[in-house]
Amino acid sequence: MVREWNFRDSNSINYISECCPNIEKLSCNNESFILCDDNVKSEELRTKTILKNWNNLKSITLYHGCGTNLILEAIKINCNRLEELILVNCSANDIGLIEIFKTCKGLKSLRLNKCCEISDQSLIVISNYCNSLINLDLRDCDKISDNGILALANSNFSKNLFSLYLEALNIKELSLLILAKNSTNLRELHLRRLDSVNDEIVAAFSIGSKSCLKRLNLHLCPKFIGWGIKEATEIKELSLFMQNIKLQVLDSICETCQSLEKFTLDITNYSFFSHNRDIINTISQLKNLKSLALFCGINFSTFEIYELKRRCKKLAQINC
Q1: pLDDT tens digits, 5-36
Q2: Which positions make up the signal peptide (predicted)?
Q3: At what angle do helices 146-153 and 173-182 cross, to 10 degrees?
Q4: Does 306 reside within a domain?
């Protein structure tokens, strides 16, 4: 029984849509694959689209030319069971997206990647309508600013979030700090290429979700030094991609985050350790560590890797 389909060409689309009524997951990069008629009008979207055959669709991913307001309207009309929507480099704007939020009450996951026409207005509507949304992923959306982030922070929406991914957005420290303090149930946090992220913000996210936060990913946030992670005492997965880090900061992280099972450390400035034994002594504090990936310009000998495994008895995977 086919439940997932990735459209790559238009051959047999109508046949597939009729013969596989249980499709739950769809990805597409061409508007014409979904619309049966290139000249379809808004009032015809209920009948002139292959979506009419898939009432059980739960996940839709739209790429490039497929992510238009017309397609979003077809989804609104035909896919009221939608739980996940992913838009990548799409031309749709707030008008199309807001109608999805108002209609698809069960939406749980939203990812917007390089959607340059989506603005704060969409986030304001999300905060009012999307009570079921638990996963929010916003990347490289130029029109999203502090007003949108504050709308999310100043509502019950932020308390429902389990997973949050923010990358390359034009947002300032204050709005992030307010969002951090109100997001009390986060399990997973990704902050990437955000100039405003500092240790106070990371600590606020960690304290607010102290017993919940299990996965933390911090990549290329220039104001972040590392001290803020000390509050994430229950974290199990940590990924750091930084310009530099001091040994005493790393030592403090390893001393505090004793629940850590998976650790990735990627440093672009390779001059922060003088001896391999420093990193071995530091990492060896992580007694629950199972997976380690270390990219810091350090070459470990076979004996040193053995020493790491000996001291971290649960360590099964090393990439150095």
Answers
A1: 465 555 555 556 565 667 788 888 877 777 75
A2: none
A3: 20
A4: yes
Return the closest-CA partner of residue 236 out of 209, 206, 262, 266. 262
What is residue 270's three-state secondary structure?
A: coil
pLDDT at 47: 46
Q: What is the DSSP letter of 155?
A: S
Question: Measured between alpha carbons, how far is 282 from 299 in angstroms, rounded to an integer?
Answer: 16
If DSSP codes are grouped into helix, strand and coil, which group holds residue 263? Answer: strand
Instruction: Give the rounded distance of the alpha carbon of 32 from its chain centre.
Output: 29
- In angstroms, the Cα distances linking 230 to 131, 174, 251 are 31, 21, 10
Residues 6 or more apart in contact with residue 306 via CB below 8 angstroms:
none
Beta-carbon-side half-sphere exposure of residue 246 (alpha carbons within 13 Å): 7
> Residue 287 domain-assigned?
yes
Whether 286 contacts 256, CB under 8 Å: no
Q: Residue 292 belongs to what domain range?
A: 236-320
Instruction: Decide if 85 is inside a domain.
Output: no
Number of domains present in the structure of the chain: 1
SS3 of 179-201: HHHHCCCCCEEEEECCCCCCHHH
pLDDT of residue 187: 96
What are the phi and psi torsion angles at 230 (to 5°)?
-60, -25
Q: Where residue 301 sits, what CATH number does that domain have?
A: 3.80.10.10
Q: 113-123: string of b/e by CB count within 10 Å (b at 16+)? A: bebebbbbbbb
Please give the structure tokens belonging to residue 174. 């204050």
Instruction: Specify if 95 maps to a domain.
Output: no
CA atoms of 171 and 294, how far apart (whole Å) = 30
Please give the C-alpha separations between residue 163 and each of 35, 55, 230, in angstroms, as whole numbers.
33, 27, 20
What integer best gives the mean pLDDT of the chain? 87
> From CA 220, how far away is CA 240, in angstroms rounded?
8
pTM, rounded to two decimals: 0.90
